[in-house]
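== Folding the chain ==

***
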Amino acid sequence: MTSTQPHRIIQWATGAMGKSCLRAVIDRPDMELAGLYVYGADKVGKDAGDITRRDKTGVLATNRMEDILALDADVVIHAARLGADHAAHDDDIARLLASGKNVISINGNTFPPHWPQKRRDKLAAACAAGGVSFQGAGLNPGFAVEKLLSTATGICISVDSVSLEEVVLTDQIANPEYAFKLLGFGGEPDNDFVNSDECAPAMTLNGMFEDVVAAAAGSLGWALDDIRREHRMLPSSKELTVKAGTIPEGGACHIDWRWRGVVGGRDRIFLSIAWAMSGEYLSDAQKPLWALRIKGTPDVEIDFDVGRPEGLPGKTSAEQLAVAGAVMNAIPRLIKAAPGLLPAIAPTPFFQTW
């Protein structure tokens, strides 16, 4: 950063990920907290420092969009909870952009070339109106494929196929409504339902992660024929007690979200995200967060994980810290970018389809 003036940042929402980003903004001398938007009425009027267990900042939380729009700020970090579909927050994001504020989303939005034309036009018009940019940043989506995989293929003479597998241990989710009603754990496994357009988590995750598959194809210069969904729910062989409650024997304890990118008539991109309440269906309970595999010349294998530093105060997870880091590091590029929709990685045809 060359400017001596700190970047003025608005934090939008203070869930677990949002608070991690908010702490990072408060702690950094090159950033200044300009505003804070919250959804919960119990947080309205509270100082951002009190919400994050930091010293008082003088910035009080509001739930009025008009208060946020009136602020002078460089960037809004948009960390709202996932909606019923991937575009659920587009109206709010468009208003923020049109008011002259760059926006970073932590919920996907990493590959605009794959968005439906109507959505792309709407958000691009808002960027043009405000003279600003919009992008997504995070771990996955945002880093694992868009940066790590695309970098790793840079040592290949040719690439035949790529895959990324992620394991998320969900047994520490404490909210029963979220774990059982929204995510579907504990119920009878229904693989037809989880692959339907009626399944709420699938509606959102398909929007987020089909972008990731398209980003992988774009980085390799591949034209996607199709993206196939192969989601599945797996039953527990015994009763499980988890933080959110009890999963009965036979209830869903493991959900695999799986997408296959079809290129040239065959599967060449595989993305898998496992949500696991136990290690029953994991080949190695200690396996890394990500396993990245590239079949090509040469083959490439990367196992990647993140961890909390020893002695770090608080309970923020390593994943939450890493998302906040990805967002902080994206801010300078976003501010300098020409107005418009900014992919986490630009499509750059490079490899032949051998």
User: Anything to note?
Assistant: Residues 144-305 form a domain with the Dihydrodipicolinate Reductase; domain 2 fold (CATH 3.30.360). Residues 347-354 have pLDDT under 50 and may be disordered. The chain has two domains: 7-138+320-341, 144-305. The two ends are 42 Å apart (CA to CA).
